[in-house]
Design a protein that fits this description.
two-stranded antiparallel ribbon; alpha/beta; single chain; seven-stranded mixed beta sheet; binds S-adenosylmethionine; Rossmann fold
Length: about 325
């Protein structure tokens, strides 16, 4: 039989002391809290084809975009063979941003139309924001509406600000930049935004549904949610060619041009993990939006798709 050792006695004693000091309820509360924390840690999500704890995804995605920021625009052109520019043009044209004579609303018959506040989420290097402002100004003669570009990644925003110096909106009040997570837009009031856009951003979010609910919160009644994202290709032949290109060529181009194969491997894997067009409509509706028919528009056979939702008035 083993003799009681010196360390056993104080351990038992200290357990008793702790039990005596802490009432039963507190212990069970802390036990529950610990369980909830453990459950939280056990929740996983996709990071490309990998399953990672939800708490890790944001920093892993952050590392990808910090790494690709300086080569992001060149790589977009090479990876998409310049087609992303056409998709973005189509996206913005379909939204017809800015006050236009036929639909401009006034608060009273004597007051002038109110400028719109447009929010480009995950706006990165500004591709959508610059198009929104060009369209509002050149097509709709709207020189007042403004765009807020929001992104979680300071490196991407800094590339965007640099690029903006070559646009007519450099230093203008019509263009502002905000660092924020799309899932928590605490800097924005409820019902303060007319148009919310997100292009090639939402598939990177940890909690996409939370971001959709936040979009619903910040939009005005009648405001529009619009998303341009990679999607599912219907045609088998096109899908075969596209998959060969994305899994074969894109990580390789990433390695040769940006010296970073892994980030581009993540980007193509994250496309695979994004829900189908139909599933994404369900998520938009679940956030409270009304989705008009047709519920989405496929671009290049579904390689990308545009989804829209209206916040009911
Ligand atoms: C593929 S880029 C798209 C950039 C730009 N919208 C475009 O179309 O070129 C994805 C962007 O999403 C941003 N992002 C990722 N997670 C985010 C989050 N939770 N909240 C806001 N932005 C996020 C990244 O920092 C990155 O700038």
């Amino acid at each position: 039989m083993s003799k009681p050792t010196l360390w056993r006695t104080p351990t038992r004693l200290s357990r008793r002391l702790i039990a005596a000091k802490q009432p039963y309820r507190c212990l069970s509360c802390s036990f529950r809290l610990a369980q909830e924390q453990a459950k939280q840690d056990a929740k996983t999500t996709h990071f490309g084809f990998e399953n990672v704890p939800e708490s890790e995804k944001e920093s892993r995605v952050g590392a990808v975009f910090s790494s690709v920021a300086s080569s992001y625009d060149t790589m977009n052109d090479l990876m998409s063979l310049y087609i992303h520019r056409l998709w973005k043009d189509r996206f913005v044209r379909s939204l017809n941003p800015g006050l236009h004579p036929t639909t401009a609303t006034t608060t009273s018959s004597s007051s002038p139309p109110q400028p719109q506040t447009l929010l480009d989420i995950a706006g990165g290097t500004g591709d959508i924001a610059f198009r929104l402002l060009s369209h509002a100004t050149d097509i709709n003669n709207d020189t007042m509406s403004r765009v807020i570009v929001s992104d979680i990644n300071p490196a991407m925003l800094s590339e965007g600000k640099k690029r903006s110096l070559e646009t007519p909106w450099a230093g203008s009040e019509r263009l502002s930049w905000v660092e924020a997570n799309a899932e928590r837009l605490s800097m924005l009031d409820d019902a303060s935004i007319d148009l919310y856009t997100v292009a090639f951003g939402i598939r990177n979010f940890t909690n996409k549904q939370a971001a959709l609910e936040e979009a619903f919160r910040v939009l005005k009644p009648g405001g529009i949610f619009a998303c341009l994202e990679f999607s599912k290709v219907g045609n088998r032949l096109l899908n075969g060619v596209y998959k060969r290109w994305s899994f074969g060529a894109i990580p390789l181009i990433g390695q040769l041009v940006a010296g970073d194969r892994e980030s581009y491997q993540y980007l193509v894997e994250s496309i695979e993990k994004f829900p189908s067009q139909r599933e994404f409509v369900g998520m938009i509706e679940q956030a409270g939006f009304m989705v008009p028919e047709p519920a989405w528009e496929d671009l290049t056979g579904g390689i990308a798709a545009i989804h829209r939702g209206f916040k009911p008035v």
